[in-house]
Batch of 2 targets.
Target 1
Amino acid sequence: MAAYTTETITPTYHEAIVDWQKRNFPEFQFLQDNWKKFYPSQTPYQLFAKVGKLNSEQIQFGRMTGQIRYENAGDMVGNMFYTARDIIRAQASTELGSIQQHRLTLEEAPTDAMKMAVLRIMAEELRHGYQMFWVFDHDQSWKKPGHPDVAKDTMDELLAMQLGNHVLDAFNIPFHNFLDNVIFATVIDLVGKYQLEMQRVFSYAPMGRSMGPMLSEEGFHIGSGRGFLKELAVAALGDNARFSISDIQKVLNAWIPRGVEMFGNERGGETAIAFGFKDRNNGTAQSEYYNEVREVIELVNVAVVQARVKDITAADARSVVREVQDTGESVSGVSTNDLLFVPDIKFFRGRGLEEIVFMPYDVHGNLITENNKPVSGERYLDYLKSVIPAYFTKTKDFEKFQDGMLGRERPEAGRSYGW
Ligand SMILES: [Fe+2]
Ligand SMILES: [Fe+2]
């Protein structure tokens, strides 16, 4: 028995999404034409909503624990209704935004397999966008009598979003080279996995039913990212490497803080739990995420050591990685410069706890000081430019960070991020 049933949305919005795809993702046809060749054992791609099963009919968290989940959005009242809308809107925006980002550097894929994987990721994100449209579209009760048509307004807004006005910062950063595609799939799609997992309990049932099928597709995105990151890090040992370890490190330094921030303020997220939308608060999910990123990067390092030291087992390679990183000394010809690391959770933060945001922490989590005081914003920006890629410092996102750092904009530490 299939784990889900399939549904299409009303023709107007189905066609609007196909239209969107033609404008934002014309390479889709190439994926369709070559699917069988690259993924012979996988069901061909189709654009539809997949409606999975709930693990329980009841609400499992928050104020309404034990009640039957909502089938109709219109039965949710006040803030709950709009918070649900905001989460679905943010989710849809990430799906569409990431397609626009991946496309910028798609043609730079070093191998056909990498290009196909990115195309497949883009197509699956399109399906995820379609899925969120289904959530809005199939339920007439989003339109409450005497109120604006929340579903229609939100879908129209989503179809018009471009890089620069997506809901979450990480989806407004243009990709510059293929490392962005790979590292984004590794660390940003992983945030997506955490969000989807948390939202399995969603008290509005159609959203809860959407999570399982989306999660299984996310597995491919994350797996592709990790596999390619390993390939590129191992290739960095060679003479004609496209990217050096230091190139890769700088891209990690830029994206990991964006992933960490996507969880929202570390002390927040209680409202989403109270409404039964999620099963964990921001801080818990963020620290689980951060630990997983560390494990992922350690496994990349293990592959690097295994490529470098003949016949070493994975377990011994892991010990070498840890010893090199703990002591800073070379072991078996491997030095810290050959390995990747995860920047400290306090590094390069423009959102989150007040005591961290816009504070000059270095990649290792040490506060950079001068005369026992944190260095000025200008000094920290200079430091940042030495540890992240130059192209990142020219983005609108960095400009915003710079404005915050220089005190032109007050940090909004407690503000909800809508996801
Ligand atoms: Fe997705
Ligand atoms: Fe994804």
Note: The mean pLDDT is 95.
Target 2
Amino acid sequence: MRIDNPKIVAALPELGVELRSGCALAELTSLGIGGTTDLLRIKKHEGIPDLLDLLDAHGVPHRFIGGGSNLLVGDGELPWVVLQLAKPEPEVVIDGTFAQVDAAADLGRTVTFCAKNDLGGMEGLIGVPGTVGGALRMNAGAYGMQIGSYVREVKLYRAAGRKIEILKGDQISFEYRHTSFAPDDMMLAVKLELPSKPFKEILAGIRICNEKRRSSQPLGQKSAGCIFKNPPGASAGRMIDELGLKGLNVGDARISDRHANFFVNAGSASAKDMLTLIADVRERVHKAFDVELEHEVVVWNA
Ligand SMILES: Cc1cc2nc3c(=O)[nH]c(=O)nc-3n(C[C@H](O)[C@H](O)[C@H](O)COP(=O)(O)OP(=O)(O)OC[C@H]3O[C@@H](n4cnc5c(N)ncnc54)[C@H](O)[C@@H]3O)c2cc1C
């Protein structure tokens, strides 16, 4: 979708928004898949309510992208524009055991910055790509921890009230790869409370998690992490592996040989290839185990 209405284009600079025309989302996603649309880069939070009012008044649909590491985006010209927060300086401010983090901050850099300030707890998130905003939305987690456990406050644009608000941690529910935020709420910043630990101890935990990832995940390949959520008490990867599906492909969309729940783009896979592979695997798992696998990857298909 192209923003060519002169009224919108003229209003953007004052709202602190930069328009990038015709962005290929394949270049903004870790899967390397996705069509083209206009991207609006937001440089100041205060302009967001007016920006969204403006887009709505002119009937311009939109979606939020963070680091694009959990997204499978459709092919071709896309029927909505994409909003992305620009990275601020500094990304993280430490105050005792609290870390105030901008949603656009890189998640891995946040984990290491906190570690260097003797704040731990997030060791499992090392190696999870993307932004802190995306991690909050997804309640990212690994190796027995999830980011939601450390959230004390979230600053967000709430679509329902059309304004920026602050929610306390206990007003938000964080479940396995699911949160109570409304689909069109936009995370802007978070206050985390983290356990104090000596840097050396945190580093040892980080090294263990890094090693676990390196030995089990296809880290050099284009993926979106796990495609499916684990059903209660089971492992989606193990079920797919038991069916002997590692290496199965549709065009360049392929199930990783290393980790059966990682589907990789081994060349120039289209969204259609990847979605066909996902649907095929869901059907086979359903037939064999009577389990309906749910997507962990967020699919933006039209
Ligand atoms: C190699 C690899 C390993 C991974 N390992 C893990 C893992 O161990 N655990 C895990 O949980 N995930 C993992 N992931 C998935 C992914 O990295 C996480 O879900 C990550 O937190 C997504 O963040 P993002 O900024 O890239 O979000 P995006 O992919 O950009 O977006 C994901 C969703 O969040 C929304 N979103 C993004 N930013 C905002 C915002 N500011 N406000 C509102 N909504 C927003 C988007 O609209 C979309 O719905 C892995 C991915 C890869 C490629």
Note: The helical segments are 6-11, 48-57, 107-116, 132-138, 199-216, 236-242, 271-289.
